[in-house]
Amino acid sequence: MTFCEQMIPALSALLEPGETLQAPVYGGILHRRSCTYGYFGLTDQALLVALLQGSSKAIAGNSRVPFAQIRAVRVRRSLVPFQYIVTFYLQDEEEIRMRISRKVYGFAEQAENLECFLATIQTIL
Question: Would you say residue 21 lies in a domain?
Answer without folding.
Answer: yes
